[in-house]
Amino acid sequence: MNHPPNRPSLVESIRRAWEMVDLTPPPRDPVERALRRCLTIDDLRETARVRVPRPVFEFVDGAAGTEASRDRALAAFDRIHHHPGPLAATARVPIDLSTEIFGRRVALPLIMGPTGFTRMSHTDGELAVARAAAHAGIPYTLSTPATTSIEDVAAATPDADRWFQLYVLRDRARAVDLMARAAATGYRTLVVTVDTPTTGDRRRDTRNGFTIPARIRPRELLQIARHPGWATRFLRAEPLGLASFPIDGHGDMWQGLKAISGADFTFDEIAWVRERWDGPLVVKGILDADLARRAVELGADGVVVSNHGGRQLDRTVAPLDVLEPVAQAIGGQAAVFLDSGVREGSDIAAAIALGATAVLVGRPYLYGLMVGGERGAAHAIEIFRRGLDHHLRLLGVTSVGQLNRRHVTLAPAPHLNADRRERKVSL
Ligand SMILES: Cc1cc2nc3c(=O)[nH]c(=O)nc-3n(C[C@H](O)[C@H](O)[C@H](O)COP(=O)(O)O)c2cc1C
């Protein structure tokens, strides 16, 4: 048979095709297999969705009211435009992703934020996340309503940079006790959350009849049957409970927590906390430059610009939109952190360019935890690390410290435009 010149014969084509065939079997370990397919935090989220019963996934993924606060926090990062600097030889040089936070070098400008009831996502819970963070060289924040105690997390990660998040409980003596135990076991930084006078209106939880401990009705039985891996682990593990302080006389822990939480705690009491904590003090849940200034006046060493991932007040401003005004108000005097909606390495770069020292994340590591316990949490951290490294190379910088305001612009939020238009008309 004659072939046109340069066109391979049939045999040659088959040989070439055969050379391309890859028969390496996929990893046998299902967790490893699942994690390999998760290139992004959104991949982890979609994988998590099918790994755990729906009420558990929705407890983590859901937000308050219309969920606009969560969605705005996420969408704000789509309004960031990144501007590369001049081409620099950044392809192969090591990129320095480390940052100094309160006098200590951390490997990445990323902090595992506090999340309550973590052992519900995966029975290894707080220990798994704390270990993954310690391994990656970044801080971990243990929450007040944690399901592993202050002491147990400290014992499992003795050399880690551990932070403790405090809800100032109605019984102030209990709050003082929590602070004392955190200090005694080497937690370095105290994070006081100020956006939770009461719990947000979590409609998905209400619709799901979500309680802790779970009440198992026929609907839940079906969910459990569909998730045997999660269910077997859950039923074999120590029952879920608030590990750092017991709640007496309340069947439902969630309601019990509401009953004891600090409904009478006010902003000025940050000074009261300051008097009782020697280490760095961070105020979490700030969405206003004047309040950030006030927090610093009351003794805070840093603030977290945050809408609690949209789980508290509905329809807030996106935290990213107030980051720069807050950084202008207190930067230089105090550290500025951002959380809510951080999902990409490039989101971390954007926050830093706008004045943040580092970011906190909540759901991203919980999605990882649901997919693969400690390995899943570590995978989430690695997604951020790899993403940030790659993004900095493309921006043409070789360290986090070189990021500056020229690297980003933030387009205004659409509803803010609408407000401005209205004002113009009325002039
Ligand atoms: C399941 C869950 C539980 C949380 N529990 C707490 C908590 O106990 N204390 C607190 O200050 N913040 C809590 N948060 C808020 C996080 O610390 C953080 O502000 C938020 O998750 C950031 O948004 P992101 O999930 O988009 O990263 C919780 C968040 C989630 C998702």
Structural summary, described in words:
With 427 residues, the protein is of the alpha/beta class. The protein has a single domain, classed as Aldolase class I (TIM Barrel), CATH 3.20.20. 45% of the residues lie in helices and 11% in strands. The chain has 18 helices and twelve strands. The chain has an eight-stranded parallel β-sheet. Strands 1-12 form a two-stranded antiparallel ribbon. The protein has a two-stranded antiparallel sheet with strand order 2-3. Strand 8, helix 14 and strand 9 form a beta-alpha-beta unit. Helix 2 packs across helix 17, helix 3 runs antiparallel to helix 17 and helix 14 crosses helix 15. The C terminus is likely disordered. Flavin mononucleotide binds next to helix 17.
Characterize this entry briefly.
The chain is of the alpha/beta class and 427 residues long. Helix content is 45%, strand content 11%.
Tell me the total number of β-strands: 12
Q: What's the CATH C level?
A: Alpha Beta
The residue ranges in which pLDDT falls below 50 over 5 or more consecutive positions are 418-427
Query: How many domains comprise the coordinates?
Result: 1
Bound molecules: flavin mononucleotide
Overall pLDDT, averaged? 92
SSE layout and pairing:
Elements: H1 10-20, H2 30-37, H3 41-51, H4 54-61, H5 68-76, E1 80-82, E2 99-101, E3 104-106, E4 110-112, H6 125-136, E5 140-142, H7 150-156, E6 162-166, H8 172-184, E7 189-193, H9 203-207, H10 218-226, H11 228-236, H12 253-260, H13 270-276, E8 281-286, H14 289-297, E9 302-305, H15 319-330, E10 335-338, H16 345-353, E11 358-361, H17 363-395, E12 408-410, H18 414-426
Parallel strand pairs: 4-11, 5-6, 6-7, 7-8, 8-9, 9-10, 10-11
Antiparallel strand pairs: 1-12, 2-3
Helix pairs in contact: 2-17, 3-17, 6-17, 14-15, 16-17
This protein binds flavin mononucleotide (FMN).
